[in-house]
Amino acid sequence: MTPQNPSDDSRWSDLDRPPLNAAALRRGLVRAGGLYRDIEVVRRTGSTNSDLAALAAAGGADEGAVLVAEEQTAGRGRLDRRWSAPPRSGLFFSVLLKPAEVPVARWGWLPLLTGVAVATGLARAAGVDTALKWPNDLLVTVGGEERKAGGILAERAGDDGVVVGVGINVTLRADELPVPQAGSLALAGAGGTDRDPLLRAVLRSLEEWYGRWRAAGGDPAASGLQEMYTAGCATLGRVVRAELPGDRAVVGEAVALDGDGRLIIATEDGVQQPVGAGDIVHLRPA
């Protein structure tokens, strides 16, 4: 990890993309009785998830630790896909969570919970409509087309923790897109792209939803999480192809989420197939 250096003029090499202020973020988010214990901002690292998991394993981080990178050179999505973007063009951060009062069987809801928190926070702070693609993608509309602007990756950290990583393209320009299917908040017409208030809004939303879910013992229905995710999920009601481990695939209509957060796909032969892991392809609009 490369720590922030106030004397590093390269931090201001793109005036449209000012650096984050770690001290101001701590003042705004770290409080007695709150979730967040510390917020660290580094200039450059490989993966915030890997760094925070290693820190937790060494006893150097507790629940509520947040690690933010201005640039991530080896960011990972699901299926080990790489996530890279220009410095300060997005939000790349990880949070350590330890939901001791929630049965481990319900921890699979954490990436879905984070998706709801991110979408809710961005709606408040950026004024942009977002949708969730099951299980962990954030979608925006650019030029009438659905584009991926963010992703979530949750990984176990020891026996009692989960590191949840989030990557969001904020000011990525059209000529900077890694693939044509990518998007950003700016390209989607966001009303605000200042990363400081965006990050604060997302982290406050995550604190709110995580607290509600924990208080309900991880029950997705009682906490309102299942209903909220269902309302914002762009996958439901569409014909999809689920590409599963072992080179298998299931095609059908995504009709519901079950109590474990699995996607239920109704196939042409009348089978209701639950999918807990896999790559989902939207075949046609709802």
Let me know the largest β-sheet. 8 strands, mixed
Beta-strand level of the residues, as a percent range?
25-35%
Helical coverage, percent range: 10-25%
**Annotation, overall tally of beta strands:** 15
Rounded mean pLDDT is 92
Going across the biggest sheet, name each strand in turn.
1-2-3-6-10-9-8-7
Distance between the termini: 43 Å
The backbone outline, from C-alpha atoms, is globular
Name the structural class: alpha+beta
The ordered string of helix (H) and strand (E) elements is EHEHEEEEHEEEEHHEEEEE
Radius of gyration: 18 Å
Could you characterize the architecture of this molecule?
It holds the Pfam family BPL_LplA_LipB. The protein has 286 residues and is of the alpha+beta class. It is 22% helix and 30% strand. It has helices spanning 22-29, 48-57, 110-126, 195-215, 225-232, and strands spanning 2-3, 38-44, 65-69, 75-76, 82-83, 90-97, 131-133, 137-142, 145-157, 161-169, 239-244, 248-257, 263-266, 272-275, 279-284. α2 (48-57) links the parallel β2 (38-44) and β3 (65-69). The mean pLDDT is 92.
